[in-house]
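User: What would this chain look like folded?
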Amino acid sequence: MFKVNGYNVPAVGLGTFQGESGNGCVKDAVLMALSVGYRHIDTASAYGNEGDVGKAIKASGVRRDEIFVTTKLAQTWHSPTDVEEALERSLQNLQLNY
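Assistant: Here's the prediction, encoded as C-alpha cells.
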C-alpha cells in the first residue's frame, strides 16, 4: 500500500492493457480480480476497454469507495483545454462518477 492524500492505495493492481473491448475477457478478468481481493484496476482510454472495466466494477458488487481505478490520458488529449473533456469521457465510459 501507498499512502496518498490520506488514502491507502494498493501497490498492486490488475492491468487491462491489450484486452480487446467487447470480447468479454476484460470484464471477466476484472470480475475475477475483484472477487479475489484486488482493489486497484488499471486501464486507459487508448486501450478501448474502459466500458468493459466499468461493467465489471458495476457487476462485482464491490463498493465504489473500495476500488481504485487508474486510467490514462491519451496522447491526443494532452492539450490543457482538452483534459477535462477527456476525463469526463473516461468517467462516462467507466460508468463512474469519480
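The chain has a mean pLDDT of 93. If you want, I can go into more detail on any region.
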